[in-house]
Structure prediction request, 290 residues.
Amino acid sequence: MRSAYTLANTLGIALALAGGSALAADPAYQGNDDWVIMQQRVNQSMPMDSNPGVFAIDDGKDLFLKKGGPKNQNLSQCDFGLGSGVVKDAYAQLPRYFADTGKVQGLEGRLITCMETLQGYSPAEVREKFLMPMYKTSGEEDGTGSDMVKLATYVAAQSNGEPYKIHLNEPQTEKSYQLGQYLFFHRWGEMDLNCATCHGFNGRTVRGVPLANLLDTHTAGMIATAFPAYVIKDGTMRTQWWRNERCVMAMRLPWIETGSPLDTALTTFLRVQAMKSGEKILVPGIKPRA
Ligand code: HEC
Prediction:
């Protein structure tokens, strides 16, 4: 916590954090941990142009429009659920069911599909070209990010100002949500942990780090609407997958692949929680930690 504040101060976020106490007194606010207050203030009070993450939008757009792969195509015809080439508001409705793949897919999973179908990359090439180097270890010390995170930031930012609208009326998406909920509450691994052990209570910490209560919809909303985010502690952009993988790793469970059904299910669960809060997407988020 202390180091997060120090880092934040360096970047001039101190003012934003100082407003936190007013929020705590807001009767509409149900959660009670400092963490949410800090997160909220950093996201909403910091001018976008002070967020180093904004560069990822332009970088991502360049990558999106860059031709490549065996078919020498760009990603501009990728269908994120609203039709080929439509990026506006698409992220707000992801993960959703896609008939062409027969899968519920989130943003990263769908980008991978388009890299394979439109550009002709093999899964191995996608991994090498777009997911590395971050994908190798998902280490916090590795501040290099990936092209995937830039692409995801560009597409996600086209939904800024929209709340999440997850299509729970689609049976497949509902199933993904149920799976995510199951994963959240199921205890497993040698540590016998579930996500709720760390993220199901107010005011819980681990080694001094405040843990977000993801069952509090306001908290879930603040978190989910800010991914992909620039994480000050790491000095780089992070996607929702990265966070899922970090925590799965902390639970000593096997590696979770970007866009896999488990990754998508955890994301669907969090987004449905976020949807209940009505919080609006603001990407790139900026977080002291993530
Ligand atoms: C052993 C405790 C622990 C468990 C179990 C755990 N996490 Fe976490 N989680 C953390 C910690 C610690 C952080 C914050 C890291 C930081 O601030 O540097 C975190 C952060 C997060 C965040 C990001 C919060 C933000 O500010 O953006 C999400 C989302 C999350 N976890 C989801 C999950 C999910 C989903 C699971 C189950 C698959 C899970 N976590 C299991 C410890 C845990």
Summary: Residues 1-32 have pLDDT under 50 and may be disordered. The pocket of heme C is lined by residues 39, 183, 193, 195, 197-199, 206, 209, 211-212, 223, 243-244, 247-248, 250-251, 266, 270, 287, 289-290 (CB under 6 Å). Strands lie at 96-98, 103-105, 205-206, 209-210, 229-231, 236-238, 285-287. The chain is about 45% helix and 5% strand.
